[in-house]
């Protein structure tokens, strides 16, 4: 087998053609927002702004659901994870599939038939106003942090690899996202998501096809990947400290994705915008197909990237300084003489950013209106509420840009960082909704105690895992090689990043707790928070006096819907 030896290139930056392709994507997204905000009659009510008048069909909503959490963090992070840990990352689709089934058949029917806009209204109906406020605040804080990473991390990574101006990319994408979200509302967000998911897939396909051709064909890619342990689906190690195993994806990622799709405002707000309950269920299934295609495409890119850099790993050679920089570095190398194609990748990465940020901004505005403003201003005129909704979208967009600008301490590992935030904050909230929907005995004291315990424990482990990261051997990092690398030479334009330091010893001596407890895979953070919330909530509820089922309004428990043939066909008729 003749190994591929990457050539040293003279250009590691984007051309005018690349920026032109990127600008076209931004203009397309803005145009969709202007179309729905100005040329389709705008929005007559806050319900139009936040849920599209509950008149959307399954396919665009499903694609929007898929795009909403497949941000630039995933565009950059998933190929890097597949590069370092192998094709077993494809098993993430198992957790996503389980999540979609549970969401479609257990959580969605409850939210849809209640006719609510904010998921946290459910917590007020089932428990109390104070629990609702707790959930709302947790959601707002977590979403703000997550969106900040989503906006800033890709800008930072692309700056380090290509010299792309970090502030220009940050403010341009943030401002455009804020503009079309504020103007067009939910319909603009959904249709721009459809456009952006197509751009994302186009970028992945271009990278995979070009990389496969350069390596020598599909069979050569598979042969190299198999010989170097990258085709590794048989890892059934139950050790929760292993970063990725079959059980990590089945048990860990299922809870993680369920916290993001089953009860997270950003996603619930989308599927309740469908015109019927069956359309909402179909949208979740369309979302699942799209998620699997996106994840599979990203994993293929990661495996192709490993075979391309088989004997000269860019990280070991010092050409990049973090694994998340692999994919943009490769794009600039393999498409050096194809002007405009690197711009397609840039559009691919930032399409993910725009879709996630717009989703978050719209969701934060929705919960603020429904949970904080309407209860205190019940008689507010409809037109005034529309202006408030648009203003909140604008303010939250500016706030997310500000958080992104303050995220300068963020290093590599953006995929883990984003999933950690969602797991720590959304995991306990998932536990609270499970307590409300599936147990009749849980009371307000129980859910408060559960949230406190679940959040505290998951935060403790996440912070510990950040301060005392597990060793690469414990995580299961696969070998990488740099046997045939040319000498590190800044005269050829390879000036971003520095050669990695070797044989660094840590300043602390690992304790048993850091070796065992803090080494928990980050995909289990959400599971830990959810289970601790449920167990603590049930125990405290029984100690303080469980709630009697007859005091719970019909429709708040999932079991009320079992055998109930009623399906709300058009939510507008019920309001």
Automatic annotation (TrEMBL):
<dbReference type="InterPro" id="IPR001734">
    <property type="entry name" value="Na/solute_symporter"/>
</dbReference>
<feature type="transmembrane region" description="Helical">
    <location>
        <begin position="419"/>
        <end position="438"/>
    </location>
</feature>
<comment type="similarity">
    <text>Belongs to the sodium:solute symporter (SSF) (TC 2.A.21) family.</text>
</comment>
<dbReference type="GO" id="GO:0070062">
    <property type="term" value="C:extracellular exosome"/>
</dbReference>
<feature type="transmembrane region" description="Helical">
    <location>
        <begin position="244"/>
        <end position="263"/>
    </location>
</feature>
<feature type="transmembrane region" description="Helical">
    <location>
        <begin position="166"/>
        <end position="183"/>
    </location>
</feature>
<feature type="transmembrane region" description="Helical">
    <location>
        <begin position="89"/>
        <end position="112"/>
    </location>
</feature>
<protein>
    <recommendedName>
        <fullName>Solute carrier family 5 member 5</fullName>
    </recommendedName>
</protein>
<dbReference type="Pfam" id="PF00474">
    <property type="entry name" value="SSF"/>
</dbReference>
<dbReference type="GO" id="GO:1904200">
    <property type="term" value="P:iodide transmembrane transport"/>
</dbReference>
<feature type="transmembrane region" description="Helical">
    <location>
        <begin position="20"/>
        <end position="39"/>
    </location>
</feature>
<keyword id="KW-0406">Ion transport</keyword>
<feature type="transmembrane region" description="Helical">
    <location>
        <begin position="445"/>
        <end position="468"/>
    </location>
</feature>
<keyword id="KW-0813">Transport</keyword>
<feature type="transmembrane region" description="Helical">
    <location>
        <begin position="133"/>
        <end position="154"/>
    </location>
</feature>
<feature type="transmembrane region" description="Helical">
    <location>
        <begin position="195"/>
        <end position="213"/>
    </location>
</feature>
<dbReference type="InterPro" id="IPR038377">
    <property type="entry name" value="Na/Glc_symporter_sf"/>
</dbReference>
<keyword id="KW-0739">Sodium transport</keyword>
<keyword id="KW-0915">Sodium</keyword>
<dbReference type="InterPro" id="IPR018212">
    <property type="entry name" value="Na/solute_symporter_CS"/>
</dbReference>
<keyword id="KW-0472">Membrane</keyword>
<dbReference type="GO" id="GO:0005886">
    <property type="term" value="C:plasma membrane"/>
</dbReference>
<dbReference type="GO" id="GO:0008507">
    <property type="term" value="F:sodium:iodide symporter activity"/>
</dbReference>
<feature type="transmembrane region" description="Helical">
    <location>
        <begin position="59"/>
        <end position="77"/>
    </location>
</feature>
<feature type="transmembrane region" description="Helical">
    <location>
        <begin position="522"/>
        <end position="540"/>
    </location>
</feature>
<dbReference type="InterPro" id="IPR051163">
    <property type="entry name" value="Sodium:Solute_Symporter_SSF"/>
</dbReference>
<keyword id="KW-1133">Transmembrane helix</keyword>
<keyword id="KW-1003">Cell membrane</keyword>
<keyword id="KW-0325">Glycoprotein</keyword>
<feature type="transmembrane region" description="Helical">
    <location>
        <begin position="394"/>
        <end position="413"/>
    </location>
</feature>
<feature type="transmembrane region" description="Helical">
    <location>
        <begin position="284"/>
        <end position="310"/>
    </location>
</feature>
<keyword id="KW-0812">Transmembrane</keyword>
